[in-house]
């Protein structure tokens, strides 16, 4: 059996590697392709990371649409409407969470489930104190202009942390890298294979979760936050709805940044008391198993056993 995962290669998608690791244990082949390559492979399931899917149904091939996030500004509401109105109908849908399902705003009877972000199970066993620290801070993930990363980077270029180091693990950062090329304490790296991300995250003393307090960012799971938490890294974060709900439910103590970053100083970060939240249930294995997608697959392929 073959599952073709279809995406446009724009977003960070650690879930793709997690899916491949999971399904390969059951002798299921996973191919990651863009829409132009899809017709070149034999597949039983098309698993679209949405985007828009304008393809026509094909007999004998089941289709899954996964909405791992809402569209981002500008015109995010229009883009969400475009996705929902023009996309082909799948056989099953996955949403990151209830917020994403609400804003995509689909009204039909197609079965669905929720698949939140996860972390590799082995990361939960990491001891950050056994690793040599090469950087003071690390930030992983998207640093596109819509997230306004300059406010954060200015702290390390000319602000209170100009004598501290920041490792940025991202992609498509060439313009930003050129802007800060004179500041050797700001190190750009990546994109990196997901399998090696933990090695580099653990080179830092603190993990930064810098998220704008506006929709959709403040309502969606922050993959970097979970990654830092799983690896036991002390977390410095902006304050917004999702992270506050997470703390209420799973505990932990984090350093909350003021909106203008006025408290982002080495002294205040170091003097804060940190503790690790409970992320035992956030492994990729558990997220996949409770999403409902395995039940859908076994209903179409009774020979499968997960």
TrEMBL record:
Domain of life per record: Bacteria
The protein's name: Glycosyltransferase
Source organism of this protein record: Niastella yeongjuensis
């Amino acid at each position: 059996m073959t599952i073709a995962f279809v995406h446009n290669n724009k977003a960070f998608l650690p879930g793709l590697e997690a899916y491949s690791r999971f399904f390969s244990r059951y002798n299921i082949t996973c191919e990651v392709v863009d829409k132009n390559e899809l017709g070149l492979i034999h597949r039983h399931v098309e698993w679209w990371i949405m985007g828009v899917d304008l393809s026509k149904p094909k007999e004998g091939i089941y289709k899954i649409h996964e909405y791992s996030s809402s569209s981002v500004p500008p015109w995010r509401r229009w883009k969400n409407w475009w996705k929902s109105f023009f996309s082909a109908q799948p056989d099953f849908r996955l949403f990151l969470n209830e917020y994403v399902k609400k804003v995509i705003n689909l009204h039909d009877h197609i079965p669905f489930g929720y698949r939140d972000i996860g972390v590799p199970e082995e990361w939960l066993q990491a001891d950050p104190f056994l690793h040599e620290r090469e950087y003071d801070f690390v930030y992983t993930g998207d640093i596109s202009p819509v997230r306004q990363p300059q406010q954060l980077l200015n702290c390390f270029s000319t602000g209170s942390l100009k004598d501290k180091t920041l490792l940025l693990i991202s992609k498509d950062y060439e313009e930003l890298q050129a802007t800060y090329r004179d500041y050797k304490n700001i190190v750009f790296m990546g994109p990196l294979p997901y399998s090696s991300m933990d090695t580099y995250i653990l080179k830092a003393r603190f993990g930064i979760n810098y998220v704008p307090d506006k929709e959709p960012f403040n309502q969606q799971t922050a993959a970097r936050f979970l990654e830092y938490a799983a690896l036991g890294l002390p977390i410095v974060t902006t304050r917004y709805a999702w992270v506050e709900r997470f703390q209420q439910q799973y505990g932990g103590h984090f350093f909350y940044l003021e909106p203008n970053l006025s408290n982002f100083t080495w002294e205040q970060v170091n003097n804060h008391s940190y503790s690790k939240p409970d992320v035992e249930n956030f492994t990729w294995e558990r997220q996949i198993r409770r999403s409902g997608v395995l039940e859908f697959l076994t209903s179409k392929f009774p020979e499968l056993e997960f």
